[in-house]
Amino acid sequence: MLLGKDLAVEFRSRETLSSVLVLAVLVVLVLGFAAPSGVSAEAAGGLLWVALLFPALQIQTRLWASEADQGMLDALMGAPVGPAVLWLSKFLLSVVLTAVLALVLTPLFLVIIGETVRGPLGIFLAGMALGVIGLGAVGATLSLLTARMRLREALMPLMALPLSVPLFLGAVVITSGSLSGTPHQVGLWLLLMGVFDVMYIALPLLVADILMEV
Amino acid sequence: MRYSQTLSNLRWILFAVFVVALLWSFVVSPDDAILKSSQRIFYIHFGSAIACFIAFAIGWAAAIAYLVKRNLGWDRLSAAGAEVGLVFATCVLVSGSIWARVAWNTWWTWDPRLVTTAVLWFLYVAYFVLRAFFAEDRRRQAVAGALFSLFAFLDVPVVFFSVNWWTSIHPKVITESGINISSPAMVTAMMLFLVAMILLAADLMWLRWRQHTLADRLEAARAELRSY
Amino acid sequence: MLEARQLVVKRGLREVLRGLTLTLRAGEVTVLFGRNGAGKTTLLRTLGLLGWADGGEILFRGRRVTPEDVAVRGHIGQVLHESFGYGALSALENLGFFSRLFGQAGEGALEALRRVGLAAFADEPVRTYSEGMRRRLDLARLLIIDTDVWLLDEPLAGLDTPGKDFAGDLVAEARQAGKAVLVVSHEPLPASVPVDHTFHLERGHVLPGRTGA
After folding, report:
1. Subunit contact B139:C14, Cβ cutoff 8 A
2. In total, how many domains does chain B have?
3. Total domains, chain A
4. pTM (2 decimals)?
């Protein structure tokens, strides 16, 4: 049943996705202009995540916002479905959307910046995956907090970015390491990102009912 | 109220501690071998950092208490803790920056503790913006604030470790290895400032808590009037 | 069936409901009037387990319930102040979704739409609907999820005259079917609707009432 809702929600979100994708492509182009002769592999890793971050934040902000705008928050709450399930469905949606974003953006970025993945591909993918999951979790939670607010687009980045610093650091380290072919301390960073992800999934699930109150 | 006599006595003590601390740090404690006189700012820096952390920790605990007990008094304490914490965090960042400039000729270092404080600073600014947006609905304000505080403070150790590891990869870090706290006079100065800062933080938190309580009472009275 | 006892609810720092007691019984229609801001919506939300009470209790079939009792919500159907629905989806899809959300099979949507007079628009995205059409959709939703309790917040608002009559018919049917119905309204209900109890919400208390706001 969770899936049914998820699918229904995604169907709608074609609106969200299209505008975000356009923004993402624009960002990559701008980055291309900013660094026409390419950048070091190290810097490329960081830049990729910067390029991903802002469109991703857009996605996150909208997660619960569309529900709130359409008066659905009460509706969903009034249904015999637990709040944890509701959060989970949004989290999954977020991960899917962000993953699509990443899948589109990353190759485009690599092409325009002129880099390739020199290190082990598996690690690169793992880093991306953990990053996307983490962003999804943080987004699903914070979006819920700001759902009913007027200026949520302004507040979301302000809250999400500091919280996601560990995730960001890890993602950048692993990504730039993979791009330059010299991954440092990969195990450690993957672990950190994993812990972050677990924390940001477990915690909202625990306090899901309180989250819905807001 | 009843408190005021005890409080003003305590404040005299606080004042005295500060005076002693200042005297000690400027007069009694010696110049640091390497950094000379500028090192003294460390006392403020360190004291603020500890006070900041304690304030945020209290704010966090109060947030949890609120979520469990739903008594607005806890929310007021949480807000007060966050405010005081933010003030002291600013002190940490400013004193850290000044010190970096004087000691190493740079305005910013990637010292893990400093970076963590900066992240913390942003998080709690976000906290207050969040609360501001909920100004009409006190309960939502409290719940949202408490939830965010919960996540924010739990994030801190993760941030700290991540920055720590990160700086080991990018060794532009200049740690404060310059401070050898060798002389006992220095240690005393440090301790004095520590006590002074903590007391100051406690006093400020108490004041802010009282202010929040009164503000809430005022608002409740206003709401009553409006409903007729 | 659904009861509020000594209910105290605060909005922010102000007590909106002060020790309110109200009982909704099966097969009865209760109508509640009240000024704007008197707390009708708050009461409805609390009864519908959408918000926590600061004091007192809500009982469903004699058992104490709170918003944590997720399963109980399946027994309560609501029409809220604002219509809701996913704009990009069609009415049919919306109803199907809601039905599944409430743990039911998802059938009967077309039939429900026919009854409320929206069959012609069943496949149109809801965002193209007018206010009146959305209100009808709300009613269709009640039909499809088939709960024991109906909580209706100004269900007549936005409906044209035939719509209001139809809403009245629905309420009468529900009553026949043994549901407990609470209607909050500004305006008097159409005469066709049998009303068992009338109350007035004032200053946080429920007073037995005169009909008419």
Report:
1. no
2. 1
3. 1
4. 0.79
